[in-house]
Amino acid sequence: MGAAVAKALEYTADAPGTLAEARLAVAAHAVLQWDRSPDADAGIWDAEATCASRSLLSAVDEILHLKEIHAFPMASSARRRMDTALGVAMSRLMDEFLLLRVWDASQLEGGHGLRVAIERLSVSVLAPGGSGVCLAFPTGGSISTGELSVSTTDELHASDMSLSSWPDMLTTFVDGTAGLHEIHADDLHLIRPASLPVLHEIALRVIRAGYTKEFLQTFAKAPCHVLDRFLSILQLDRSFFAANRINFEDAEWWATEDMVKRWILATKLIEKALVVMQRQLMAQECGAFDRFKDAYFMAIAKQGILVLFKFADGFTSTRSPEKLIYVLELYEALSNSAPALLPLFTGQHAELISRQLPIVLAKLARALRAAIDDLITNIRTDCSQAVSETLGVGVHPLARHAMTCVELLAPHRAALDLILVNGGEDEGGAEGVTPFGSRASELIAGLERNLDEKSALACAGGSQSSRHLFLANNTDFVLNRAADAGVASLLGDEWAARRRSRLEQHAASYIQASWGPVVACLETAAVGGRGKPAKALAKFNAAFEKAHGSQVCREVPDPALRAAMRLAVKETVVTAYSAFLQKHPRLGKSVRYTADDLVESLSELFEGDAADGGKS
Fold first, then answer.
1. pTM as predicted
2. Are 66 and 162 found together in one domain?
3. Distance between CA atoms of 393 and 476, rounded to whole angstroms?
4. Residues 47 and 190 in one domain
5. Which residues form the Exocyst complex subunit Exo70 C-terminal domain (predicted)?
6. CB 340 within 8 A of CB 271
């Protein structure tokens, strides 16, 4: 035990008791008096895992030796002192274990290190569907929660890990890149080789002392700098870990977007990093620590996974439609990670993770169903903008918002079908319509009823032409956007056929309301009545000019519908006009327009403000 022990033995030579008691006194003194100062860089082992206090280890070994040779009777005070000293020694070793850097995160430091990890672990930073389009619109307000304060977006973007800069830097790395995982994953050397002998030294003494149960319990507090590096993406503060439960319900949509994107990236990294970490740890020869490797790995993996679960659970009270798409992406990421995460665990750890994961997913699913219900209700009852002359007859903002929601939800239809069917949702529509298709149909039906009511109220007691053109435009818009999103096929042929028929009816009703009275002027001329054809023509000219003047600035945004409606107007007006001229060839100078003139004039219809600007 060296000079210090010899000196202590000299000091205790005259003390009463056996030599074994004297040896215990010296060893116990060394253990009890040793303590790492709070700001010290090294204890028993320094930063390079080199033993910096061999005398302390010798003292521990001395106590273990006295225990193993049964130096003291069971009920003696010396035995109690030895047991106390051994307990303190084991506590010291376990403290040193918790301070040991087993995992090497040096390759992951800074933004460049994170990009390296993303590349070598073959992780995608794209959301499902690859879309960065927002479902929500800024609403203002502060961010606060009942249990935990949430950082603002300015704070979230303040670090070098700002999510706003990630897409440009990282989107070249995608999931499933051929061979990328196999080629690069083990290039990340995540274990510090110098720590392996230390693990053996600690485990050997723990086993000799019979403290394996306490050692296993210590694993729950073991640090892992690799997982900590990935969890730092979430930018969590101490209050997160102190709170029993967190709640992000009051976070604004833009803060929610940022937090969810961070969580998805962290989850993907941790999911794949754990596989590599497990493989690398199991490949190491750790001596006496080999018997603990499984339990140790599962303990640190469980810590990281439970942090992710706790973060995800913070969104389970969120039912705001503005945050629907972000919570849905979180649900998908968590659900998709399960097949890779669950096999990492066995025994009690597997039971815990297997129990917690479905609970969080079920709570997220419940929140998503509530958010979808609220979205449908909001669209059905929206009264923000009525149809008016100033708003025009084009596509209503509510229609754009509703169909944007449908388009954003469509790429997630598989997850939504599972969420909705598990929630007891009835298809409520045609045979073969999926749960998501049924809710999309319900959302669109609510939109259509709302727009019909708005247009009826705006046009009450007035001309119906604007109403029918408005409804034709919006019906056409819904059909086109549903087709673009791939939703029309989910809703069924009957759904699309009904709306095409409705579109044709509104177009025909518009033509009848706007141009029917113009054509009717030509029908008032009695055959053979002197002077009446000329009067009818003059009346037609006036009616045509008035109708043209009022309709030329009407807008039909869809080029295909615009062309079809122009053709229908021409067939209605020009055909009747040409027949009238043929029937009355002697009108002479009374004829102000040729049929071609009418065709040219009617070709200006439905351009909106562009037509008005072209005339001026």
1. 0.78
2. no
3. 13
4. no
5. 261-603
6. yes
The CA-based diameter of the chain, rounded to the nearest angstrom, is 151
List Cβ<8 Å contacts ≥24 apart for 523-530: 525/580, 525/584
Q: Please determine, for residue 86, whether its predicted confidence score (pLDDT) is greater than 90.
A: yes
Half-sphere exposure of 574 (CA within 13 A, CB side): 16
- DSSP string for 497-531: HHHHHHHHHHHHHHHHHHHHHHHHTGGGPPTT-TT
Q: List pLDDT tens digits, range 60-75.
A: 999 999 999 998 999 8
Q: Do 228 and 190 reside in the same domain of the chain?
A: yes
Instruction: Verify that 120 and 268 share a domain, yes or no.
Output: yes
Distance CA 510, CA 464 (A): 7
Q: Angle formed by the axes of helices 19-33 and 77-99, to 10°?
A: 30
210 and 80 in a common domain: no
Residue found by looking up tokens 């149909």 in the block: 441
pLDDT of residue 181: 43
Structural tokens at position 490: 């989910």
d(CA 395, CA 387): 10
* CA-based nearest residue to 498, from 486, 437, 506: 506
The one-letter amino acid at 458: A
| Residue 384 within a domain | no
**How many Å apart are CA 175 and CA 90, to the nearest integer?**
45
Both 440 and 487 in one domain: the answer is yes
Specify whether the backbone of 95 is left (phi greater than 0), alpha (psi in -120 to 50) or beta.
alpha
Measure CA of the first residue to CA of the last residue in the chain; give whole Å.
105
Same domain, 256 and 276: yes
**Distance between alpha carbon 239 and the CA centroid of its chain, in Å?**
23
Query: Which one has a higher pLDDT value, 117 or 22?
Result: 22
Please report whether residue 331 resides in a domain: yes
Decide if 381 is inside a domain.
no
Amino acid 359 reads I
Residues 366 and 434 in one domain: no
Q: In this predicted model, what pLDDT tens digit does every residue of 92-125 receive, in sequence order? A: 889 889 988 899 888 777 656 666 666 666 665 5
The DSSP symbol for 51 reads B
Going by C-beta distance under 8 Å and a sequence separation of 6 or more, which residues neighbour residue 568? 507, 508, 511
Contact 515, 572 (CB under 8 A): yes
List, in sequence order, every residue forming a beta bridge with 69; answer none if it has no partner.
none
Give the domain-ending residue among 452, 484, 512.
512
The span from the CA of 584 to the CA of 570, in Å, is 20
**Residue where a domain terminates, one of 512, 541, 559:** 512
Structure tokens at 358: 């479905």
The radius of gyration of the chain from alpha carbons, rounded to an integer in Å, stands at 39
- Residue recorded with tokens 């929206």: 382
Residues spanned by the domain of 604: 521-615
Q: How many domains does the chain have?
A: 4
Q: Which token pair is 442? A: 């319900």
CA distance 400 to 4: 83
pLDDT at 304 over 80: yes
**CA 122 from centroid of its chain's CA atoms:** 19
608 with 553: CB under 8 angstroms? Answer: yes
In whole angstroms, give the CA distance from residue 443 to residue 437: 10
3-state secondary structure of 103: strand
What's the average model confidence in pLDDT over 233-245?
Answer: 80
Residue 461 tokens read as 């007691």
